[in-house]
Amino acid sequence: METVHKFFFKNSSDMSEVKSNTIDLVITSPPYPMIEMWDALFSMLNEDIQQSLQEGDGNSAFNLMHEELEKIWNEVVRVVKPGGIVCINIGDATRNINKSFQLFANHVRITTFFQNNGFIVLPCILWRKPTNSPNKFLGSGMLPTNAYITLEHEHILIFRKGDKKRKLPPGFESRYNSAYFWEERNKWFSDLWVDIRGMSQKLNNLNGSKKKLRERSAAFPLKLPYRLINMFSIYGDTVLDPFWGTGTTSLAAMVSGRNSIGYEINSEFLEGFKLNLKELKNTIQSININRIKSHIEFIERYKKSGKEPKYQANYYKFPVITKQEIEILLFSINTYSENENKFTVNYSKFEFE
Prior knowledge:
The protein is of the alpha/beta class.
């Protein structure tokens, strides 16, 4: 098996390099409107945003920021194939505007856009990042009535293009090889994720200088896009990230046996991505070993409960719970090569004894 990964360093409001109706899955985390660290970026795109912020007109700034995002969402609408899935990791924003504390519901605005543009809104995931600061509070502390709820979760919004599910040929082998374990399904398809930690989002310039590459990056850990890719795509599919950043979605696509396309306005991120590639073979080995060991441990607990698995995996020496899992197949990375911001990855069957 072989996958191809392409990166374009430009604003993704123009994704003319991607043909219409060709993308199977989108996984991305855009800049969050009304989060202060992104003010400069949005103001660079539209100077009216900075003026609205200076005037204390939060609603105007909020709408103008989303209008900039919607230029990219319009391209997403164009390139995703019918039945394709879009996953957007977005946090709401809390902010004092004119001495008034309020919430800016980014997830509502984005949901409304996709709903108005022919997408079906599917149940979303609340990603509640584990925190080491359980005693945080805003407002008047222990005295009613002016304290505020601490915002400690983000949304993973999920949309499908059109009202029909994606059609695959009967008996399509790649679909069955792409199966996940029964116990993974029960965990992954919960609407609340609490087992994935967030990442530090401060990035220093890779040349060693003290100047920051970007004050902050909308980074998520590899585990998050890896899980979504396995949930909503099959081997050989193409995954798009229009806010590529550090390239985590592309790395997840590589270790998942999917193709990927990324757009990013700052080409300096590519150097860090290449550093991560050096660990790519070890990363996929570790992920595969952990998945299989976790499955074997689950099977042992399953047997101790007095139950007996009915099926045996065809490619590996362990039982599975359902018939849909018997063709599950994992891959190792043999080689990867680079040619002008295009990476090609070659795979072989992952062996586990």
